[in-house]
Amino acid sequence: MDEGDFLNAWVTAIVNGWHIEEEQAKLSYESQEKGGNI
């Protein structure tokens, strides 16, 4: 595994992690909105 591979894996992990956080935030926001409308 050379430095380029390591950087690619690191960037991919960050991008995937950010995407997951974003999805969770969106889901939690949507569930809050639904809860507020009851």
Summarize this structure briefly.
This protein is an all-alpha fold and 38 residues long. The chain contains one helix and no strands. The longest helix has 35 residues, at 3-37.
Structural class of the helices, strands and pairings? mainly alpha
Q: What is the chain-wise order of helices and strands?
A: H
The averaged pLDDT comes out at 83
Identify the overall geometry: rod-shaped
Distance linking N and C termini: 54 Å
User: Any low-confidence stretches, pLDDT <50, length ≥5?
Assistant: none
Count up the helices: 1
Largest sheet: none
Radius of gyration: 16 Å
Number of strands: 0
Strand content: under 5%
Share of helical residues: over 70%
Any overview of this molecule?
The structure is a single chain. The chain is mostly helical. The protein is 92% helix and 0% strand. The protein has one helix spanning 3-37. The longest helix is centred in the middle third of the chain and has 35 residues, at 3-37. It starts with a helix and ends with a helix. The model has no long low-confidence stretch (mean pLDDT 83).
Output the keywords:
0% strand; 38 residues; 1 helix; mainly alpha
Outline the fold blueprint.
Layout: H1 3-37
